[in-house]
Predict the structure.
Amino acid sequence: MKRLAGLSALALVISSTSGCGWLWGEEGYFRDRGSDYLEANQTAPMQLPPDVATAKRLDPLLPIPRNVADDNVKGEFEVPRPLPLAATAQDSDFSLQKSGESRWVLARRAPAEVWPAARQFFEDNGFRIAEERPQTGEFSTTWQRFDELSGSMAKRLGSAASSADSETRVRVRIEPGVQRNTSEVYVVSAERPAGSTSNVEFPERSVNTGVDSVLVDEMLASMTRSAEKGGSVSLLAARDFDTPSRVSLSEDGSGNPVLNLGADLDRAWSSVGRALEQGDWRIEDINRSLGLYYINLAEKAEKKDDEPGFFGKLLGSAPSEEEREARAERYQVRLSKVGDSVQVTVEKNINTVAPADVARRVLTVIQDNLG
């Protein structure tokens, strides 16, 4: 019925090309809406709950142009064209992300491709690699004074550190991003007085925000330059980045399917996420702290090229939001640490396990896509 209505509308458009006043005129469907916002009512800014400690700044999506002096002005107004964005900003595979005082690099590349670029940046600037685990996307440097680093890096870090007469070491963590084939690169440093032998542990979150910000900014610039020249791929990271040592599908005491992974929680989280991305469903959300992936079995993975065109929408090929919600099959994939391994289960919600056939189907796909 919906397609019939779309075809009727299309026929009406074609048959009316000789007289398009109703289509393009002042009262037409495609009339100029440039001044419509002058009739809109202003609402109060969005307020966050008081218990939210930190959040990203909420900027207006459609700000009013600055040269509108009076919101009571009537009549026609020509909306100024937006300033063009730099092409390099749109085409870059690397961008800086911020949340409060936290800063990290978002890369539109797989972790295996980001790993060598991040590692090369630190080696080029005089850092000595103390430990590296490409399978989990981590490496750290030794304790070093700033004057042991390259000239420009030593100068910038020395001015950003709490004391120029100190030693620092750095830990870099590369995690798979939320979207397919993306990565997030986090940098955290530890600092101690020069000559000290105390073993200062890496903090969970950035404490030396000045030092960490300099490192993130410089690494972003280095990765961008490397990408323009054609980056390399770490074959070791690509082959064994997060593959568990063993994978087995079994059942718990109640007969519910369970996937057992021989890996630590960080490595299992990465490998399960990668396996889910290859499945024939959509990942709608994730919650790293709870170890949850939220999937919708009724929807395919989103692809930019799948967006229907004008006539596709007119003919009703794109389902409505109501239709999507009506057919949704939402489940959550949970990762739980059990001893030296990780168990992966499928739930309908926090209080209800998924039907055994559904859970087995999802876990089987994860198992097949691991490795």
Remarks:
- Confidence is low (pLDDT under 50) at residues 85-90.
